Amino acid sequence: MTEPAIELTALPSLDGIDAADWDACAAPGGDRPVDPFTTYRFLRALEDSGSVGGRSGWQPRYLVAKSEGQVIAVCPLYAKGHSQGEYMFDHNWAHAYENAGGAYYPKLQIAVPFTPATGRRFLTRPGHEVVGMAALVQGAVQIAADNDLSSVHATFCTEAEALAGAEMGLLHRIGQQFHWVNNGYTDFDAFLNDLSSRKRKNIRKERATAQGFGGRIVQLTGDAIQPHHWDAFWRFYQDTGNRKWGTPYLTRAFFDHAQNSLRDDMLLVLALDGDRPVAGALNFIGRNTLFGRYWGSTEYHPALHFELCYYQAIDFAIAQGMERVEAGAQGEHKLARGYLPVPTHSLHWIGDPGFRDAIARYVQAEKRAVDEEIEVLTSYGPFRRENREEQQ
Q: Would the pTM count as exceeding 0.70?
């Protein structure tokens, strides 16, 4: 029996697809998506706020696969003029390619902009997982080949996608992040009981210091988040962005769009001096995972960063029965606070055969180094020896 033909389209805007069709692939089953980052509402907020498109260096080319008139698969595809905002970086690849006389940019990126959070990147309607992913991969590679682009990259995909992509001939790259895992804890003290006595004492001292900053800490989600909160958080975000990236990735308008369409997906933790916010951390709520994203402050208070970003996130995850907290990119300081190293995954297609061979050797060597680092870092984790062995 002949398989139905699949029609592929690259869209410059989400105007070209209905939200229901996109989310039938991005967020099937359940009231809350596994993660909110590939939902229509999140990607739409990025687009409508001008955080992508224009002169951002992220030009949308959303890829849509249809079979017999039905959307069966989609992916957030962007033409990139740089490697900023990816968090699984390839700057050294770009330098090597350009030093050899090639043009590395533009390239194609299958990713959620500015979001180092693991999730599905090849979004398929249930029942079309295999054929849908294959169509998206083939479509992205064909676009790159037809336009003489150097490469295609799918970053922070799931391990299952990475293994499937490797079977298709893509290069599988391993990275590392720090995640907190809920081992059935009933409260924060139950989590602390799994730690060594010294680490347990340090965290209690750190929390007491932070919570004694002279104000109060609040957790806000849904309708408790009000428009004026974003005025304060924008100041925090700008401060962090200016120090870390030079220019904040998100526009001010993104937070207005988030207020309208994403506030049920968000946990905003604020430190208040009276009614005045002095620091804040923004998290996004998935079905079983809390994703820590942004932090900033206008005043320095000892340990407040750790309290708002890490300990409040653990409190919320335990209270909601969530399985884990992903604390974003980098940061070995997270290890002492109960966040253990875990692998992250990406897939890569490189057009030039010689360069592809060089990258293949690189990712293999990198994988060995990352595996070793994860093993070493885990051994230095804060958990008691018997609990550490269970974590491993």
A: yes
